[in-house]
Amino acid sequence: MNLRRPRQLVRSQPSSRPQCPCRHSGCEHGGHEHGPEAGTVSIVGVGLVLMILLVGGISLDLWRVVVQHRALAEVADAAAAAGSNGIDLEHFRSSGEVVLDVDQASAYAYWSLANQDLPTSFTEVSGVRVEPGRITVVVRGRVDFSLLSLVSPGGGLDVEVEATASPRSGGG
Phi-psi region for residue 54, left (φ > 0), alpha (ψ -120 to 50) or beta? Predict the structure, then answer.
């Protein structure tokens, strides 16, 4: 059996100095000052956090715009490639020159647009222009802001993509 004496609590004598209202240990109210600068670090910290959130919001929304631009470009490219198959066969048989039939090339491009999984940002087909040697498809979309909508409610960015394709002969 271990018989130890219990520890006695040592009480400190009250200090003759008044305690600093800031309650820093060892403060004699001369090592630091309380005044208009008190809390400045907190305000700066909150400001930095807000700036980081703003930059993060801009980068996130910018990335969404890039992704949707690429998706719209794929749609326009596919429609232009489909339209470039609308060759004027009678002109080809008579002259050997490969040119596009305006009606057939437009129909192929619109068929391609109607049968694709369009991205959520897609809003309209701005135009399908057919010239004898090429077809151009222009599509538009709108990317709504996510985090930046807190700063600009209802804001977004309009995106327009143009793709051009030309028919090629097999050369055989």
Answer: alpha
Report the pLDDT value the prediction gives residue 109, as an integer from 0 to 100: 96
Question: Tokens at residue 166, please?
Answer: 């030309």
How does DSSP assign 75-111, residue by residue? HHHHHHHHHTT-B-HHHHHHH----B-HHHHHHHHHH
Phi then psi dihedrals of residue 25, to 5 deg: -70, 135
Structure tokens at 45: 């910290």
pLDDT digits (tens, 9 = 90+) for 124-147: 888 999 998 999 999 999 988 887
Q: Give pLDDT tens digits for 34-91.
A: 556 666 778 888 999 988 988 888 888 889 889 999 999 999 999 999 999 999 999 9
* Closest C-alpha to 168, from 85, 96, 89, 76: 85
